[in-house]
Specification:
The structure is a single chain. By secondary structure, the chain is of the alpha+beta class. Helices cover 37% and strands 31% of the residues. Strands 1, 2, 3, 4, 5, 6, 7, 8, 9, 10, 11, 12 and 13 form a 13-stranded mixed beta sheet that branches. A three-stranded mixed beta sheet has the order 15-18-17. The radius of gyration is 22 Å and the shape is globular. The protein starts with 7 loop residues before the first helix and ends with a strand.
């Protein structure tokens, strides 16, 4: 079901909208075109938002970080006075949305070197400051090329990656994500930032997470063994203690089946290999598995699953079918 927007600033603050205009793909084109074609009211809002977006200049991008906090503070101050000034508040909300946009545009315009991984492939990276990164399959990482030695330590990512950040208290390391910024000085942590999931899991050190302002104003401190998760239902974040071995098992190209259901296993395969898994019998989806699987080639993995758990598996170019033998 497509999202229905109430006003322009909701569209301007939508990360998928920014991605569509800055770096369009077949998927984003299809989404926004379909939304416009199916609802004339949404089409008008989308076009107005595009007009505002197209009027943003490079100068606006350069000054945005300096005024962003003032805009949000003005909104909060006006709310706290209890005065009824709807027009003023609406203006500031749109201004805040515009600041979100120029920050997002900078993601695409600041010169960066880009690293990508295909489905079924992981990659190890070492940055100039000594930081080590392991990228999971179907992930993207951009590193600022304007960084002067180790003075400006920041990356932009989507997908999944594990970071082992070299300690430098005077120059914090920032990971920019679609939900906010992860700020550290030296630590080890895992980040998942996909359409289906957002989470940050800390294995060593400490993390400060600064959410995008539309979610909450306060930063969130994450301790070891804590996992920060974005909950779509509440449009907010929750911290939980987690010892799930599969959070980091992908680094060793493993899937650890500790009472894992066939349905959960199918999601792991879809995420890593980019194929659709169809479970033919509903009762099979809940069957639990135990053991450790090696993420080798897809064909080898499916053979091991079939032999180990006595399943009938049919594979073609676009999908895989699981059924009872």
């Amino acid at each position: 079901m497509k999202e229905k927007f109430k006003n322009i600033d909701e569209i301007l603050s939508n990360p998928l909208f920014i991605e569509w205009l800055c770096d369009p793909s077949e998927e984003t084109n299809a989404y926004w075109t379909s939304l416009s074609n199916s609802d004339s009211g949404q089409a008008v809002l989308i076009q107005e938002a595009r007009n505002i977006f197209n009027g943003i200049t490079i100068d606006a991008i350069q000054v945005a970080p300096k005024v962003q906090s003032e805009v949000y503070q003005a909104i909060q101050n006006k709310k706290n006075t209890g005065q009824d000034n709807t027009i003023f508040l609406q203006f500031l909300k749109i201004a805040a949305a515009l600041l979100f946009i120029v920050a997002a545009i900078s993601f695409f315009l600041i010169p960066k070197t880009s690293y990508n991984t295909d489905y079924g492939i992981t990659k190890n990276l070492s940055l100039k400051d000594g930081t080590k990164i392991v990228m999971n399959a179907n992930s993207n990482l951009r590193v600022d090329l304007n960084a002067d030695d180790n003075q400006n330590r920041e990356v932009w990512m989507d997908g999944e990656a594990f970071f082992e950040v070299t300690s430098d208290p005077e120059h914090p390391f920032t990971v920019h994500t679609s939900r906010g910024d992860i700020i550290v000085v030296g630590t080890k942590f895992n980040v998942v930032d996909t359409r289906e999931e957002f989470s940050v899991y800390l294995t060593e050190g400490k993390i400060k997470f600064e959410p995008n302002k539309q979610y909450q104003e306060e930063s969130i401190n994450i301790d070891v063994k804590k996992r920060l998760i974005f909950k779509e239902a509440i449009k907010g974040f929750e911290l939980e203690t987690s010892n799930d071995p599969n959070i980091l098992a992908w680094k060793d190209k493993q899937i650890i089946c500790d009472e894992m259901s066939i349905l959960e296993l199918s999601k792991e395969i879809e995420s890593y290999y980019g194929v659709k898994v169809v479970i033919k019998q509903s009762s099979l989806a809940d069957r639990e598995l135990n053991g450790t699987l090696e993420n080798q080639s897809l064909e080898e993995l499916l053979f091991i699953i079939s032999e180990t758990f006595d399943l009938n598996i049919i594979s073609n170019k676009s999908s895989i079918e699981f059924s009872y033998n």
